[in-house]
């Protein structure tokens, strides 16, 4: 086969990189090394521009959606091994400095045209573009009239060569707040209360972190009363600092509730569904069905929904008369789900950190195709990655008792399997 334009470009790029490495090898002059650093930064910015343009070219016709991805950032993350924030950075830049397509099919100019020019010239880095987009999406900037907003965008773009991204953000926020002379409209109603609690596990060691905020005084008082009741020093020799005593008091209270109290069951209990299947569809191995509260299901959606749910099968005749109503059967019993939880520790998809309570259990070999409901044929997936397995060309298989995932060929031509690092121990 003759080389493609991409093959030729790759070979030229390899030769150019080899030349750069040779020029900066042992014995290189200081001035040459400085020049190489500048050239490397210019090259990096040029590659960033190319990647943003390519992202926009793929995003405009809906290429990522056609391959089963609801989010372009998720597709880029799987394709290039990026963290999500890196993917979102490119997507934000593509939406800000690249032309878009209007509802009638006409090409519309970039949302930030001056920034697009300095980005194309290499005067602005990808981080500069991200910062300008963030500043112009802030509340003060959104209150500006279109002409003033465009002027602010031009001023921000002009400062890219003089400011680092952090400096540009500070200067830009001062600029838009100065331009927004009237400020926000006064609110007659009291501010909305915020009550939130965030739990996150440490990635590299056992344990995790809890952070919270309660504007509702009654909710905060209830939590504070529980902690205060158990945080008193045990005796005169108790030298634990106050934060430690409060942390352990909260954990003790939660342990008591788990052992004696009643909580809504999560994770181990799945929703009960009534799936209505016509007789002719059942004879075609359930090619279609509908939910109790309406809405048709495709075969792929039905298989995903039934992966880890209590199902009441109802068979209808061709005229809609119920022929048989099955009994509830749990596809994955609680004990088996706990075993999957211990093994996978949450979503098993590489790079995903969803906790077990947010996940579903998927049959690697589908149940309708003879796949058994046993540990060696089950894998824990969050809803996003469960959908990917059912609706795209991602595949999952079990190797030596552990799940591994095979990407589509458009993500990896070799389709090299990927596996998430299995945690040493996961609380059930």
UniProtKB/TrEMBL annotation:
CDD domains for the chain: HNHc
HNH nuclease domain span: 335-387
InterPro entries: DUF222 (IPR003870), HNH (IPR002711), HNH_nuc (IPR003615)
Protein family membership: Belongs to the Rv1128c/1148c/1588c/1702c/1945/3466 family.
Protein's name in the database: DUF222 domain-containing protein
Organism: Pseudonocardia lutea
């Amino acid at each position: 086969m003759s080389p493609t334009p991409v093959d030729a470009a790759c070979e030229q790029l390899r030769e150019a990189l080899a030349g750069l490495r040779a020029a900066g090898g042992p014995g290189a002059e200081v001035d040459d090394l400085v020049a190489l650093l500048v050239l490397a930064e210019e090259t990096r910015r040029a590659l960033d521009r190319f990647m943003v343009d390519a992202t926009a070219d793929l995003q405009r016709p809906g290429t990522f959606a056609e391959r089963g991805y609801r989010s372009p950032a998720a597709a880029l993350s799987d394709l290039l091994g990026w963290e999500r924030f890196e993917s979102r950075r490119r997507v934000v830049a593509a939406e800000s400095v690249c032309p878009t397509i209007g509802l009638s099919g006409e090409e519309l100019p970039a949302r930030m045209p001056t920034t697009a020019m300095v980005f194309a010239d290499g005067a602005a880095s990808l981080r500069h573009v991200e910062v300008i987009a963030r500043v112009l999406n802030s509340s003060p900037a959104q209150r500006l009239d279109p002409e003033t907003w465009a002027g602010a965008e031009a001023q921000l773009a002009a400062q890219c060569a003089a400011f680092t991204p952090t400096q540009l953000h500070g200067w830009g926020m001062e600029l838009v707040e100065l331009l927004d002379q009237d400020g926000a409209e006064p609110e007659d109603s009291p501010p909305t209360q915020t009550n939130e609690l965030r739990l996150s596990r440490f990635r590299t060691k056992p344990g995790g972190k809890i952070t919270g905020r309660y504007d509702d005084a009654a909710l905060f008082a209830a939590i504070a009363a529980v902690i205060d009741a158990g945080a008193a020093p045990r005796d005169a020799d108790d030298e634990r600092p106050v934060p430690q005593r409060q942390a352990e008091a909260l954990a003790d209270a939660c342990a008591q509730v788990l052992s004696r109290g009643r909580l809504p069951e999560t994770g181990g209990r799945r929703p009960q569904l009534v799936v209505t299947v016509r007789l002719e569809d059942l004879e075609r191995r359930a090619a279609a069905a509908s939910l109790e509260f309406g809405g048709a299901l495709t075969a792929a959606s039905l298989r995903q929904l039934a992966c880890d749910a209590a199902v009441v099968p109802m068979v209808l005749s061709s005229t809609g008369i119920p022929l048989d109503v099955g009994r509830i059967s749990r596809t994955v019993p609680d004990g088996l789900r706990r075993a999957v939880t211990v093994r996978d520790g949450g979503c098993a998809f590489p790079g995903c950190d969803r906790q077990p309570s947010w996940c579903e259990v998927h049959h690697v070999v589908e149940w309708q195709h003879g796949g058994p409901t046993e540990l060696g044929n089950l894998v824990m997936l969050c809803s996003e990655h469960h959908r990917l397995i059912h609706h795209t060309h991602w595949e999952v298989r079990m190797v030596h008792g552990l799940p591994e995932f095979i990407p589509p060929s458009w993500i990896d031509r070799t389709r090299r399997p990927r596996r998430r690092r299995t945690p040493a121990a996961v609380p059930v």
